[in-house]
Design a protein that fits this description.
- The complex is a heterodimer of chains A (91) and B (377).
- Chain A is of the alpha+beta class.
- Chain A contains two helices and five strands, in the order ββααβββ.
- Chain A has helices at 28-38, 43-46; strands at residues 2-6, 20-24, 57-61, 64-67, 81-86.
- Chain A has a five-stranded mixed sheet with strand order 2-1-5-3-4, covered by helices on one side.
- The model of chain A has no long low-confidence stretch (mean pLDDT 93).
- Helices cover 4% and strands 40% of the residues of chain B.
- Chain B is built from three helices and 30 strands.
- In chain B, β14 and β15 (196-197) form a beta hairpin.
- Chain B is globular and about 55 Å long.
- Classes of the chains: A alpha+beta (91), B mainly beta (377).
- At the A-B interface, α2 of A face β6 of B.
Chain lengths: 91, 377
């Protein structure tokens, strides 16, 4: 169940400039957990003090925007690509 | 001797280096990250604190100021820690993480980093103190400070409830000080287990607070090797203590005194720094809390040679300057003769290699400058 994950530009320096990482899981939540297990420095950025996904992070998957609150139940397939970004703010 | 400046801005850090303190090379690192504080440890490693409303608080480290690596740990409160509702109200517009909805206490910014006696300390908002004894690999809350009984009386300043000043005693590892806006100044004499407010002689800025807290300390400076002589830029004026903060006296002879929004007459400003070799102290007054820019637009640094009276130093500084210099944006390189550097909220860095006798522009075109630290190699 390997998927490709695109990091937002601001987080790429955390991973040495990498744009894409790979992780495993059958839901976005599971992929995020595997991603931070493999790359612990990312955990601070994805999860808040209570362990929840930071609310302003959104995921783009196959043309669909997935909110953090729906990450655990949003199913994905092997070979899919997930884009991690944040909800637009400002004008 | 080469000097490096780390300049924190909302869009990254300017790294300025110079061999002669006149010609500067500039790099801009950690692009996109709000950079709020930096420090250097006894092995020459530089730490930079960042915060993002989307992706939280973190620390980067570098041994050469070019290659930066993020640490896996950062200061964090426990999920069960309860937050200050008034601080929540002030920072709610940037609660992109959503945690305030649960009433929790969380670290939304590292205001200051301080290295002393082999440990790295972080002062944060929501106000608290954290320590790392493994150079940032792990962090522990200093519960003696964070959970002291008078916390219930703490009220945030305009910028939130933040612990922005940490000072230490080079001769006594059990003694430290922490300043919180707008709760006041605190000291421990037992290595952080217990803390006492040290605000006697300073008027409370928060009307409803008891006299022991509610003071709006803006910054405090001293010589760690003569630690009990302290200079304090308060919302309500500049003060001096000769007993480690047990008592304070106003010292404003020569400073521009003005009427604050509450009618109190005193000087006003944010940063302060001491040149350790000469003992001279420097502040940058603003024309009160209504205007928050230099009086008449004349940007000036004020110096005290004797720790009692002040003189303006403005040679080379603009006379039409209507911006501010924020709390963390004044630094000294501690060379001989001493170099001073400060940054404005409009993104200009000024430097002096003559203890402020004359100034020149070091860099411009930067975003709002939130912190400046100077390091002599």
């Amino acid at each position: 169940m390997t998927v490709r994950v695109q990091l937002p530009p601001i987080l790429r320096p955390v991973m040495g400039g990498e744009r894409f990482l790979t992780a495993e899981g059958n839901s976005i939540g599971a992929v995020l957990s595997d991603l931070t297990r493999r790359n612990p420095a990312l955990a601070l950025h994805f999860f808040n003090e209570s362990g929840g996904i930071r609310h302003n992070i959104v995921f783009l998957h196959g043309g669909t925007m997935v909110r953090a609150k729906d990450a655990d139940r949003h199913r994905i397939d092997p070979g899919d690509e997930i884009v991690i970004t944040n909800a637009l703010a400002g004008g | 001797m080469p000097v490096s400046l780390i300049v924190g801005t909302p869009k990254g850090a300017a790294v300025l280096t110079s061999k002669d303190r006149r010609n500067w090379e500039e790099d801009f690192v950690l692009r996109g990250w709000p950079v709020t504080a930096s420090t250097r440890d006894d092995k020459g490693r530089t730490y930079i604190a960042v915060n993002s409303p989307n992706y939280g608080v973190a620390l980067f480290v570098s041994d050469n100021l070019k290659d930066w690596k993020q640490l896996e740990a950062a200061p964090r409160y426990r999920p069960e820690d309860r937050g200050n509702p008034e601080h929540h109200r002030l920072v709610a517009k940037e609660d992109f993480a959503g945690i305030l909805k649960g009433g929790g206490r969380f670290v939304d910014q590292i205001w200051t980093l301080h290295f002393a006696h082999g440990a790295l300390y972080a002062g944060v908002s929501e106000a608290g103190l954290f320590v790392s004894r493994d150079r940032g690999q792990s962090w522990q809350p200093v519960d003696g400070f964070n959970e002291q009984p008078n916390r219930t009386t703490w009220a945030p300043g305009f910028g939130g409830l933040g612990a922005h000043t940490i000072l230490s005693d080079a001769k006594n590892p059990n003694r430290m000080w922490v300043g919180v806006s707008a709760a006041g100044f605190f000291r421990t004499d037992d290595g952080g287990k217990t803390w006492q407010p040290k605000n006697k002689g300073v008027n409370p800025a928060v009307d409803s607070a008891p006299a022991s807290t509610g003071q709006c300390v803006h910054s405090v400076t001293h010589d760690p090797n003569n630690a009990s002589v302290m200079f304090r830029q308060e919302h309500r004026g500049v003060h001096r203590s000769d007993d480690g903060g047990d008592s304070w006296q106003v010292i404003e002879d020569g400073l521009p005194v003005t009427e604050l929004s509450d009618g109190h007459h005193c000087s006003f400003g944010f940063p302060s720094v001491m040149d350790l070799k000469s003992g001279q102290v420097f502040v940058i007054p603003l024309d009160g809390d209504n205007f928050r820019f230099p009086r008449g637009g004349q940007l000036a640094v004020y110096r005290s040679k004797n720790g009692k009276s002040w003189e303006p130093l403005s040679k080379g500084l603009p006379a039409n300057c209507f911006t501010a210099v924020l709390r963390g944006s004044l630094a000294a390189d501690q060379l001989d003769p001493g170099g001073l550097y400060f940054g404005t909220a409009s993104g200009v860095i000024y430097g002096s290699d003559s203890l402020g006798e004359s100034w020149r522009e070091v860099a411009s075109g930067l975003p709002r400058i939130m912190s400046v630290e100077a390091y002599a190699k």
